[in-house]
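Running this now, will post back.
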Amino acid sequence: MGIIDFNNSRKERFLAPCIFLSGDVTAGIESEYQTAVEGDKEIVDLPVYLRRSSYYSNLIKRTKNGEYQPYKLKEIEDYLNDNKKKIWENSFVIIPKKHLNNYVLSLIDYDMLSDKTDPSLGYRKDKHLFETVNRNGEKCFRFPVSYMLRIALADFIGEVKTQSSIAERVGKKLLDHFSNDNTSPEVTSFYICENIKENIGAHLAKENVKRYLFTQLLTEYSNKKFGLMDSGQRVYVYHSPLTPTRQQKLNSLIPDSLYRELFISPCLAGWNRGEEKKKYMELCHLALSRSHLNTLEKLKDAGLIKNNLIVLPNTSNTSLTNNGIHISIGSKFLTDKIKKDKSLFNLSAEKYYSDLVVKIVEHFIPLLTVTYSASVYRIPFHKIHPETILGFLPHELDFTHLRMIYRRWIKKVHNKRFGHRFMPKGPLWWDMILEKGLMLKGDYLPDFRVLDYFVSILSTETASGLDGKLNNQQLLKKELHEMGIFDERLSFYALYRGRYVENNGYSGFEGRFYSCFYNLFDDTKHCTNLQTLFTALAYKYIMSGKLTHQDIPDTPHIESERRQIFFATAIGLPTVYIKSDTKNSFMLYILSHCEKIRNSRRYPGYLRLEIKDYMSALLKIINKDAIDIAENLSIIDSLNDLKIRIKNEKETNAYKISRSITAQHNKKSPLDINSDIFNSEIEEFYRNQLRLKHIEEGFEILKNDILKKIKEGLITNYHTKDLYLFDELDNLLQRAKNRFNNGILTLEDITKLLSIMLIDISVEMGYGGKNCADIAL
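Update: finished.
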């Protein structure tokens, strides 16, 4: 279908001056968490399942028969035995049936149905995989942590049925918010936030921090109530953006089919036909693994691979274990308008303007990576191969920008000795000798997750995903499917993705480029506010007639030109190159505010653009064009915070997270620390210090929020039998926070805190943007 000609009169019929401004914005978050189970290899499911697998048994037999070299078996056994910290990331948990109440057992039975809409079809064919017998002959269940969180809440509901009607009613409504991503738990906002009494970012940040605390309480509830700690298992749930190094190691040792058995979610909840959804998750893994292999041809065509000496990418890609934070914002005006009239005109207009907004906002996204969103990582010298470090970039940038970024990246890498730049060339053993002998450090990246995952699909010369046409993304996916780059059955990957009433129930946008936050409240608040600001500014440009689709052409080069700045920022590059006669009018507008731009000597016809200068230019444009929007949304503080982080590297999240490791070693730079040590300690930092830091934030926000509700008389609207929970609230929260840090929080305290939080959530749902009158008492 072609683009409808939306002239000014028609534009006024669809758009309104209030779009994404105060009173119009709604927001929610999807949080993907890392999980780990601590325990002995004889107890924890991951090593036990691996040892019992047919692959491991066959490996032993074939090694004895001489079919396989002994080193293969030794590598697996080293993985199993060399784990001093006893941490097994993304392992399932073993839960004795005797610890579960009847409500949980009935929920598990329901979730095991082949089709939840038709119980007559019976149970899932893989049901036996989740029922196991313990060593002592005790009946147990085997579940991923993502499902454990769901049944922990269900178990709590079953326990408080006769004690707290509010906890029971609200708890049941929250069950479906505990789902999973491809591997990790995915917990969505418990209620939709609006900027009624405070700016949208502050409201969503409180919800996010409290939901994180609630998830931690369910984790500790499982550890205690399900007897996990007593049986030698302790579960951790936390923010960590990258695939754990030990999981990457295991992935290189086992077949991709076994990897999927161990790590791909079985999708027990959230879908009526879970086995079908599981097959979709497996399809994601297969498609991305194949896609990563297909980058080799593009790298060769781009001249970055000049011979057949390459490091072949693993046929089993681990990028699906990367964990991000997705912030979604919606417009009540647009949503209501389209829901009332789903005419072809309105649906076409929604798509037309949504695509244009995405193109505009993509220019601003580099302001938020590294400053707020980070996933720091050290790459050793022996892995500095184009086919290794460039990840999915060959599918996300055109050849010109790919070559430019790679050349600048290699210049950044610390591999120069005696006036000569060394590069890994061949066998791993030789590269390792070279690395150690010459003390070649490799590189440090401030936001590696967005390079290690397929975050944004690049248009082709014949199909664009952002030209404003209905069904354009389906056509692009189909073309990429035929090229072996993508699978048309997967959802559309984008940095900033339009959300539509027809498919998603609301009209808005989802920011999918956030990796990890250091200060959970502040970073969530500022990122939400700034994302809203960029979106509202885009609509302002559109409604004023300043920007149209023709001003930002839908060609692969123009898309790549603007997105290269985002990827270069994530890598930590200082410069990029823009065509001096670029057809992107908005890019020219930004460049007109730059002070240090000059003609490139290396690339005739291109301008050399310093990324810091680009950031400063964007700030100037925001001060000039969007200060009225910032005032309307009451987010001047977020704008000021952004300016501080742009001007001072030490205020960025990438610096704060990496500093947590360098300070321990009394080093100035991550490059002064061995890459294996740095990456291992970063993972430990996420699991311990950052997890506890976020928990402490949760307790503080919960305390202030509840005291405010009590003062405003909101809590007293509920049954008095629930109010005993709030007696000596300060002492309970302080005791719980201290015991959380020491790992000795009691089940009684956990139960009280969960009940208190559910009452707090019920208040939010009662006066928030989501209608929850059916739980008001």
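The chain has 31 helices and 20 strands. More later if anyone needs it.
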